[in-house]
Amino acid sequence: MTVRTAWITGASSGFGAASVERFVAGGWRVIASARRAERLQPLVERHGAERVHVAAFDIRDEAAMRSAHAALPPAFAGVDLLVNNAGLALGTAPAQQADLAQWKQMIDTNVTALVTLTRLLLPTLIERRGAIVNISSTASTYPYPGGNVYGGTKAFVSQFSLGLRSDLHGTGVRVTSVEPGMAQTEFTLVRTGGDQAASDRLYAGAQPITAGDIAETLWWIATLPPHLNINRIELMPVSQSFAGFQVHRD
Ligand code: NDP
Ligand code: 8X3
């Protein structure tokens, strides 16, 4: 049986780390990328260099990304699935108080790096009739106070996914936007600048989505029969739903 290869970004934690395990368990090769090499290297020790290739770089650094791509071992060079998962939210301040540097970091990571890696891999993905799974968010559709630029980046990811589908019409390449709601990972720790208590409070008693839930969803999407495309999929924990508009009164 042909062994397929997935490039999973943000593989050092959360959804990405769980997805590496799922795809390796399913018999795939995985290129695991993120900045924290010390979190990625054990994957090679655990699964073997023929199953996992580590590419440790800052995804905002285009030159580093191109070098990592050029340095892929031959067995990993034909990418069948790109999981654009690396991303982050920083802060929850209202726009008028937000830190512009944090906004730019979210745009550089969630948008610019995502389109750069996608563009780099498109020729291979087309040649192999592969697939792209972009990790968006419920924040792409439902605004909330303090979500400003984070939600904007995810709206871009969702719309870019649909646009890609349109452009890739006839190539056989599948494109999916995965839009999770509240999931317990390091996401809130990162968003709050390392406030573990705030992260624990957010998830306490809520039975949030787990990283394993998302890994299973990605596995399902990637292993559907090749004539099926999931355009977008939105997931929430049962404990999370919608609330009304806010009204300010004079
Ligand atoms: P984590 O913080 O656990 O994981 C984020 C991953 O992104 C890490 O592996 C991190 O690696 C990587 N990353 C961040 N910045 C960079 C960078 N500059 N260069 C390379 N890699 C980077 O969070 P999640 O697993 O929850 O997040 C994964 C994706 O899911 C994100 O796009 C997030 O927006 C999205 N999402 C999360 C939800 C949630 O509630 N948790 C819900 C909906 C969507 P490292 O720091 O080692 O570089
Ligand atoms: C993460 C979900 O609601 O924190 O994308 O924005 S939320």
TrEMBL record:
InterPro entries: NAD(P)-bd_dom_sf (IPR036291), Sc_DH/Rdtase_CS (IPR020904), SDR_fam (IPR002347). The lineage of its organism: Bacteria, Pseudomonadati, Pseudomonadota, Gammaproteobacteria, Lysobacterales. Pfam families: adh_short. This is SDR family NAD(P)-dependent oxidoreductase. Keywords: Oxidoreductase. Belongs to the short-chain dehydrogenases/reductases (SDR) family. The keyword Transcription does not apply. It comes from Fulvimonas yonginensis.
